[in-house]
Amino acid sequence: MKTALITGATSGIGKATAKLFANQGFKLVICGRRTDVLEELKVELSRFTEVFALNFDQRIFSEVEKAILSLPENFKNIDILINNAGNAHGLEPLSEGRIEDWDAMMDGNVKGLLYVSKLIIPGMKAKNSGHIVNISSVAAKQTYANGVVYCASKRAVDVISEGMRLELTEFGIKVTNIQPGLVETDFSKVRFKGDEDRANTVYQGFKALEAKDVADAISYCVNTPKHVAISDLTIYPSAQSEPRTVYKNL
């Protein structure tokens, strides 16, 4: 039975992936900052598989290190790492951007991914096998105005994924970079500081992707035969042609 560690497992794509993997029989290490939600999810998924919950903020390396080093022996052998945790904050031009928003995105989307990966990769290299899935965004493909820092953080994820592939293929470790388009999760609610009315307008007039659609894609990538490696996968809702263009009423 393979063990998968999923960051950002308390909502959205991470939660959907955890549920799908539980049904497929993977052992799970679910990670997040909200202890109550983590425990609820652990209880729910424990009906299907073995689950261990880790509570930490991946923007703080000391928390990441302490949490991962605390894994019990039967959960230390991580076969699959889903680097899903991330965030978007604000939608303003650079001249009006908030430093705390920039720090949150760069620390969470880039440095947090590096922190978690740094601690998991040595175990994968030691056994010459493993699979890392990094969740990027179509924002990495095309920068849009007022979202420059978020786009930059996701472009960094693309570059890190490429670098991981160059460094890890010889150790039998697969690396997959997934770029979703518009997914209807709490993403916009976080970006707009809890303004639900503004967040909801992002998804009006067309059918956005659902978290489970991306989870299905992640599942496909990690369940391919040993000789098959999906390097990059872009997923749009059918109404979206590129990061900035969505056709309504489709």
From TrEMBL:
PROSITE patterns: ADH_SHORT. Gene3D superfamilies: NAD(P)-binding Rossmann-like Domain (3.40.50.720). GO terms for molecular function: oxidoreductase activity, acting on the CH-OH group of donors, NAD or NADP as acceptor. InterPro entries: NAD(P)-bd_dom_sf (IPR036291), Sc_DH/Rdtase_CS (IPR020904), SDR_fam (IPR002347). Keywords: Oxidoreductase. PANTHER family: ALCOHOL DEHYDROGENASE. Belongs to the short-chain dehydrogenases/reductases (SDR) family. This is SDR family NAD(P)-dependent oxidoreductase. It comes from Chryseobacterium manosquense.
